[in-house]
Design brief:
Oligomer: single chain
Number of strands: 10
Helix content: 40-55%
């Protein structure tokens, strides 16, 4: 009898028709706007959090490597031979030796505990971009037996030192004498300052020449670890398996996900919690669709009765109202998704615009390390949020549509 998909036509017609009850139209519009705002907010916030995560990861890995190789007790001998071996690995783009040790820096009456890193200026650029973080001096100023040192700007400020000052380094590896254990003390000349944008590095890292560090920490020609840089930082597991299966020497591997595990886990936890909280906005809008559909079904009882009388099946009646609710949800999801994508791609323009209007910065440079709000749009997030909104909308329409299919024509038309 019905040659066209009348369920789709009626569902669309009920959505766009001017109803006698204006309140139903208002709730329908508010549900659509609520879903759009929820999808828009969720996509934008997830993109901003992805941007912050990417920015922090770049800053951390700008001062360190993707992976390190070491032997027992954090000492590695004959690193030159290992360097040649790892350089042949397809995923490895660079390698460099380092010496790591804890020490104390003293200048006048100021004393600070620091992490001392010994590097070779010729190799270090292969694994870390320290040169771009330097605001004074250069890595080439670090020369063997010159005992030069490069400090983070916050560390230099707390010590009260400037370029050319002599700084005393105290190492825990002492020298045994008749008077007891005497700490090893060496004077270094400050030749450079760096600013990594990470408090961990700017306030607690000192960089010296590798051979100077070996002498201070009594390494006797050994290094702490060999640093590796990969063409893809997420292939650390693949490189680790290759090393375990093809290298005769027993090596301990440690990658960037392990070195900063708690930090990145905290970011992921925050992202999940924000996702859950903002999903509640979409859920509230979906519940509004339930109330909208219930009132529409009540308003259209006579239409339902007529359709049933002329042969429409209960499943067709149910599909009509499911389609009507889905149209509301799809329009809201698409509108919110488009707005979210546009906002995520243009966050660097939108934020300065509002800062100029309100006359203040959201992240002042003198307080926050990251003063500009970054954004990194992941299309997986867009499809996930849009799919979630669609699913919630579909679930919200099921009960009202089911009630509509159960309406008896005789009961609905009894008093007409």
């Amino acid at each position: 009898m019905f040659k066209q998909p009348f369920e789709l036509l009626l569902g669309y017609r009920y959505t766009r028709a001017k109803r006698r009850n204006g309140f139903i139209s208002f709730i329908s519009l508010s549900s659509m706007i609520g879903i759009a705002l929820g999808v828009f907010a969720l996509i934008t916030v997830l993109s901003v959090m992805n941007g912050f995560q990417q920015e922090l990861r770049d800053r951390i890995l700008g001062m360190t490597s993707h992976m390190t190789l070491s032997e027992g007790q954090d000492k590695l001998a004959n690193w030159q031979g290992l360097y040649k071996q790892v350089s042949k690995i397809e995923q490895v783009t660079g390698a460099a030796p380092n010496v790591m040790g804890q020490g104390m820096l003293s200048f006048n009456e100021n004393v600070k505990a620091v992490l001392v890193r010994g590097v070779l200026p010729a190799y270090e650029p292969e694994v870390a971009d320290i040169s771009s973080k330097l605001i004074e001096g250069s890595l080439e100023d670090l020369k063997d037996k010159k005992y030069s040192i490069i400090l983070g700007v916050e560390l230099a400020n707390s010590l009260g030192v400037s370029i050319g000052d002599k700084i005393t380094m105290i190492a825990p590896q002492g020298t045994i004498s008749p008077m007891g254990v005497i700490p090893r003390i060496k004077r270094f000349t400050l030749t450079g300052l760096f600013e990594a944008g990470m408090h961990e590095y700017d306030s607690g890292l000192a960089i010296v020449h590798l051979k100077d560090a070996q002498k201070v920490f009594k390494m006797r020609g050994k290094i702490t670890a060999l640093q590796l840089k990969l063409d893809d930082m997420f292939e650390v597991d693949k490189v680790r398996k290759y090393i375990d299966n093809n290298f005769k020497k027993v090596l301990y591997t440690r990658d960037w996900t392990q070195q900063h595990a708690n930090f990145f886990k905290a970011i992921q936890m925050e992202k999940r919690m924000v996702f859950i909280f903002l999903t509640l906005i979409i859920m509230v809008a979906a519940f509004n669709i339930v109330s909208t559909m219930v009132m529409v079904v009540t308003d259209k009882q006579k239409d339902i009765a007529v359709l049933r009388t002329i042969g429409a099946a209960p499943s067709s009646i149910q599909l009509i109202f499911i389609i009507q609710g889905l149209i509301i949800g799809i329009i809201g999801s698409v509108a919110g998704g488009v707005l979210g994508v546009l906002a995520s791609l243009n966050i660097d323009v939108i934020i300065p615009f509002f800062e100029n209007i309100f006359g203040f910065k959201f992240f002042p440079e003198d307080i926050y390390y990251i003063s500009n709000i970054p954004s990194d749009l992941h299309w997986d997030d867009v499809w996930l949020v849009s799919g979630l909104a669609f699913t919630m909308t579909l679930l919200a329409t099921l009960y009202p549509a089911y009630r509509a299919s159960k309406i008896e024509p005789a009961e609905a038309l009894r008093y007409d």
